Amino acid sequence: MKEIFHVRDQFRDGIPEKAQWVFPGFINPLEIVAFECIPVLRERFREPVPICLDGCPRMCKWKFKKTGTT
Predict the structure, then answer these.
(1) Which domain of life does this protein belong to (predicted)?
(2) DSSP string for residues in 26-64
């Protein structure tokens, strides 16, 4: 929550046109959820991690496939 409040306070008056900023800890889980919810994306871009502990979170049991652009 600290990061959310920081971003809110930093851009209280709006976001400058050429601003570059990072929202730490938020975008990765949001990005991964799309690949979990949309089967076509998951099949094309994600693959299971071959050796993974049972107690690992589901998002850690998959990785992005190697492609020509990644």
Answers:
(1) Eukaryota
(2) THHHHHHHHHHH-HHHHHHHEEE-SS--TTS-GGGSEEE
* pTM given for the model: 0.52
d(CA 17, CA 14): 9
Please state, in angstroms and rounded to a whole number, the distance separating the CA atoms of residues 31 and 50. Answer: 22
- Give the C-alpha separation, 52 to 14, whole Å: 43
Joined tokens for residue 12: 């209280």
| Cα R_g (the chain), whole angstroms | 16
20-48: per-residue pLDDT in tens? 666 666 677 788 888 889 999 999 999 99
Q: Quick one: which H or E segment has residue 2? A: helix 2-10
